[in-house]
Specification:
Layout: H1 3-10, H2 15-30, H3 32-49, H4 61-87, E1 90-91, H5 107-117, H6 130-135, H7 138-148, H8 151-156, H9 164-173, E2 184-186, H10 193-206, H11 212-222, E3 223-227, H12 230-248, E4 255-256, E5 260-262, E6 274-276, E7 279-281, E8 285-290, H13 302-315, H14 335-346, E9 347-358, H15 368-372, E10 374-375, E11 378-387, E12 402-409, E13 417-424, H16 434-440, E14 441-450, E15 460-462, E16 477-479, H17 486-489, H18 493-496, E17 504-508, E18 513-514, E19 517-518, E20 522-525, H19 536-542, H20 544-552, H21 554-558, E21 584-589, E22 598-600, E23 602-605, E24 609-612, E25 614-615, E26 619-624, H22 627-638, H23 640-649, H24 659-662, H25 674-689, H26 698-702, H27 707-726
Parallel strand pairs: 1-4, 2-3, 2-8, 3-5, 8-9, 11-13, 17-25
Antiparallel strand pairs: 6-7, 9-12, 10-11, 11-12, 13-14, 14-15, 16-26, 17-20, 18-19, 21-22, 21-26, 23-24
Length: 741
């Protein structure tokens, strides 16, 4: 079934959705049992996730989201019942809350109340065929869920449902010795893609050696899912069944019970017993795998925060002191401490764990806990990383960059960590399967190491490319013109008309630069060529209007207190030299962390004509010896690898782009090679593209995606990575080709 077909049949625009939700909303006004269920559901959600309803743009978000969840459960239930009829078995525990005491009500009872209130509600199974179930993949339910539940609530719940291909890479990264005997747990199972992959791997390992009945029994004894969202639990149960269908159809099995549980894997908001096959169980596992919730700390209820803090007393989840020791300062969301608690609670001695988390935890302060590689008194070895860089495996609407981290518990760690760096290839990225990922993306094998060899919790970078981007800067980094006496030196158009234009220049401030281009300029009077220059006689004789203007502001200029202004004329300007007048300069704003680099030369001004740009006080720059050198350096600095390296050395990504910071990068002298010319050409092309899109505000520009510019940036990223990994950045040799596998 195509995504469009799924949504047309059962999504928000479908007839079944309209009919079901309309009746359910009416019942919330008249049916006491339905109202009580909604109240219990709301308390369950807010206790575990905080107030997620405030972020939803709806007139009555609590009612509407409950009805959406109820409808989704209804649709999935119809699929389950259809599978039971067609394949001849009974699902023992279809309700999300079966096997736990998390909720007192059952969704099926509410489905019946809706059906009794309006007999016209169409059953989704009416449009199903047996072949639909056989051909359904794990993306089927993801598409359905995203077509029913709003994006706002999914993100508020920290749900970034994982594409099948990413899940396959994560499971394979575990390097499990024996899939037949191994046990697997996904503590935040979402739509069930990770359990589905584990089931597929187990079936493949047992086919031919075990009967279908034995395979079903083995799988249901050894692949477990847990989630706090009733909708996710129901999704996982259906995905579990779909994965079992190839053997379930031939198995001598009348009833199936699935080990998928509605509870809190961390035991913070709910910690009741789990029962399975009539017995209370403790779901420890040889392997943990999944995508933990990316819920910001600030969204959690105070009760849950207090429980996190109590957990921290045992596990040392917060590797900070003083005010920074409060969870939420050290971690921008709960994903890392979530993984740490799950390893502590569920992972058997010597077991493995593979989780999808933010890639920035390799470098930023929020990842310091992970970089300790210690869970309580249990050491971890990080065996494998899949780094997706700037790719968006969760879709373009989710602005989160991801990576897979595979650990071994109770093992000593050593660097470098084996890593695969995935970047865009020639084809459109496809994350549907691991094979599709390999076919559509470019992969480079590398290693990950700490920036500081003596501190393993320091930022982690690639040993080939990102470490290669750190080194010596062969260029002088200069400061822009000192931004003092603004009222005097900033010139408006009326003032310009009353003086000679010889010493007035286009002037750039922090608001004017984007990557590869300018977003306007102001006018600045720079009445000398270099600091302390005595050119007062020249101004009096050749530019009397300019001199009269300065003299009329003499008192304000002489009142400036800086000691470096005591030399030279009363209008002295600091931050000037021959470098200021270089024909080509690579500029960037030094304040804050805005790594946007651009080449500036001259601009065409309506009143000044074509004139050289002067960088302002907020700017640093490199005066290049040629146009190609400037664009070569600009391409390096704007490349993905150099941007990450900047973040690593700029005080964990929060400080300014000062001379000290940028000078830690490898910025070699320009040599004419095939690769360096290619980089310069790409930067020049990028600088041609940007002006075509500056007919709007800078904010609107920054929110745009410009496909042509993105393609140029991707080629810059690939070229720089090649130059760093094969050494051509530092030599006169030619360019090589990235390996793919």
């Amino acid at each position: 079934m195509s995504d469009r077909g799924i949504l047309e049949r059962w999504g928000r625009e479908s007839t079944p959705y309209d009919a079901f939700t309309s009746v359910a909303l009416d019942l919330l006004e008249t049916d006491e049992r339905v109202r009580a269920a909604r109240a219990e559901w709301e308390e369950f959600v807010t206790t575990s996730h905080g107030d997620v309803f405030g972020d939803v743009d709806a007139a009555n978000p609590r009612d509407e989201l409950f009805v959406d969840a109820l409808y989704y459960d209804f649709v999935v239930d119809q699929f389950v019942e259809f599978a039971e009829r067609e394949f001849g078995f009974t699902l023992v525990n279809p309700e999300p809350s079966a096997n736990t005491d998390a909720l007192s009500f059952g969704f099926r009872e509410l489905h019946r109340r809706v059906a009794e209130a309006d007999g016209t509600t169409a059953a989704p199974s009416d449009a199903l065929t047996k072949e639909d179930l056989r051909s359904a993949d794990t993306d089927f339910l993801r598409t359905l869920y995203e077509g029913v539940v709003s994006r706002e609530i999914r993100l508020a719940l920290g749900e970034y449902y994982t594409p099948r291909g990413v899940a396959e890479l994560a499971v394979d990264a575990l390097d499990a010795d024996d899939f037949e005997t191994a046990t697997f747990l996904d503590p935040g199972c979402g739509s069930g893609v990770f359990p589905a992959v584990c089931i597929d791997r187990k079936i493949a390992a047992m086919r031919g050696d075990r009967t279908p009945t034995e395979i079903v029994e083995n799988v249901t004894d050894s692949v477990v899912g847990i989630d706090l969202n009733p909708v996710a639990v129901k999704s996982t149960k259906l995905n579990y069944l779909l994965s079992l269908l190839p053997v379930l159809e031939d198995a001598d099995v009348d009833a199936v019970e699935l080990p998928v549980f509605l509870t809190d894997a961390l035991g913070l908001s709910h910690d009741g017993d789990l029962s399975f096959a009539g017995e209370t169980i403790d779901p420890t596992a040889d392997y943990l795998v999944g995508n933990p919730p990316w819920i910001p700390w600030g969204r959690l209820s105070e009760d849950v925060k207090d429980r996190w803090r109590a957990t921290d007393a045992d596990l040392d989840l917060l590797p900070h002191d003083g005010a920074a020791s409060r969870l939420g300062y050290a971690n921008d969301d709960v994903s890392i401490p979530y993984v740490w608690v799950c390893i502590h609670r569920y992972l058997t001695e010597g077991g493995g764990a593979s989780f999808v988390m933010k890639r920035d935890i390799m470098t930023g302060p929020a990842g310091k806990l992970l970089r300790t590689l210690t869970v309580g008194d249990r050491p971890l070895a990080l065996d494998r990383i899949h780094d997706f860089n700037r790719l968006r495996p969760f879709g373009e609407q989710v602005g989160a960059n991801a990576a897979i981290y595979a650990f071994r518990a109770d093992a000593d760690h050593s660097f470098p960590v084996d890593a695969t760096s995935w970047t865009a290839g020639d084809a459109r990225p496809d994350f549907a399967t691991a094979e599709a990922i390999r076919e559509t993306l470019a992969a480079a094998r590398t290693g990950v190491v700490p920036v500081d060899d003596e501190d393993t919790t320091s930022a982690w970078i690639r040993e080939d490319a990102e470490r290669g981007a750190l080194g010596e800067c062969a260029h002088d980094i200069r400061h822009g013109v000192k931004d003092d006496a603004q009222d005097v030196f900033s010139i408006n158009r009326e003032e310009l008309a009353e003086m000679e234009s010889a010493f007035v220049y286009p002037y750039i401030k922090s608001k004017h630069v984007v990557k590869y281009g300018l977003f306007g300029h102001e006018l600045r009077l720079v009445p000398m060529r270099k600091a302390n220059e005595d050119n007062e006689g020249e101004l009096k004789n050749r530019y009397p209007k300019t001199y009269d203007y300065l003299r009329s502001h003499r008192e304000a200029l002489e009142d400036r207190a800086s000691s470096w202004l005591q030399k030279g004329p009363f209008y002295n300007v600091f931050g000037l030299g021959d470098y200021t007048w270089s024909e080509y300069k690579v500029v960037w704003c030094r304040l804050g962390f805005k790594p946007h680099f651009a080449v500036v030369s001259t601009v065409e001004d309506d009143d000044l004509g074509e004139k050289l740009v002067v960088p302002g006080d907020h700017y640093m720059f490199v005066a290049a010896g040629s146009e190609r050198e400037a664009h070569f350096l600009c391409a390096l600095l704007n490349s993905a690898i150099y941007q990450r390296s900047l973040k690593n050395v700029a005080s964990e990504g929060k400080a300014s782009l000062s001379k000290t910071v940028v000078s830690k990068l490898e910025l070699p002298e320009y040599r004419e090679t095939e690769a360096s010319r290619r980089l310069a050409d790409l930067s020049m092309r990028a600088h041609e593209i940007v002006p075509e899109h500056t007919d709007t505000s800078k904010r609107a520009y920054n929110e745009r995606t410009i496909p042509e510019l993105a393609a140029v940036q991707a080629e810059i990223d690939r070229t720089v990575e090649e130059m760093l990994t094969d050494g051509t950045l530092f030599s006169d040799s030619g360019q090589s080709t990235l390996s793919t596998f």
